[in-house]
Amino acid sequence: MLEVFKNYLQKKVSITDEQFNLISGRLRVKNFDKNEMIVMKGETAAQTFFVLSGLLRSYSIDSKGKTHIIQFAPEQWWISERNGLFFNEASDFFLDAIEPTQAILVPKDFFNESAKHVPCINDLNNTMLNNSIRFMQKRINMLLSATAEERYLNFILLYPNLTLRVPQWMIASYLGITPESLSRVRKDLAHKHFKP
User: Does the structure show a pLDDT above 70 at 90?
Assistant: First the structure.
């Protein structure tokens, strides 16, 4: 399964098979069952996850017991809990598997160590970090200023294959709206003959 990760890297940066063999020794593939908890709030995460198959999510639970989904991670997405990973602090979020999932566990120093053998991998790391910041800025702006319909349409663009893979309440949680509001949005879009 490391072949999938190698192909992913080779699409992003110029890396040979030999170079990949040099940097891949500390990568581990792990299977997670559906609903398996991977990181608990309060734990210190030691790695990031690259999803090979399946679906992960990160989320928080507020003082009233309401779930707030921060991110979904389908195939070939990265997901991590940065408090523990980069600051050695307790996690603010939970991370679990929505579906049976196979993921690569990537140590936090993977990119720094890999750059000793493959200098251009630093470019990928910087691009991924900036994309993550850009994604979060856009997400905050959507939550603050977009209508429920605009949020849902943006969700479909970002996660085109998830509408049939996750329960509607999870999509509503990610969008910051109630399941009833999401149902109305979907009904309105159906009347406009919109097909995701």
Answer: yes
Which stretches does DSSP call E strand in 87-193? 94-97, 101-107
Contact status, residue 78 vs residue 127, Cβ threshold 8 Å: no
Contact 127/135 with Cβ under 8 angstroms?
no
Q: pTM of whole model > 0.90?
A: yes
Q: How far apart are the C-alpha atoms of 173 and 42, rounded to whole Å? A: 22
> Residue 141: which residues within 8 A CB-CB, separation 6 or more?
none
Q: What are phi and psi of 187, to 5 degrees?
A: -65, -45
The per-residue pLDDT for 141 is: 94
Domains in the chain with CATH codes: 2-120 (2.60.120.10)
The whole-angstrom separation of Cα 150 and Cα 59 is 22
3-state SS assignment for residue 101: strand
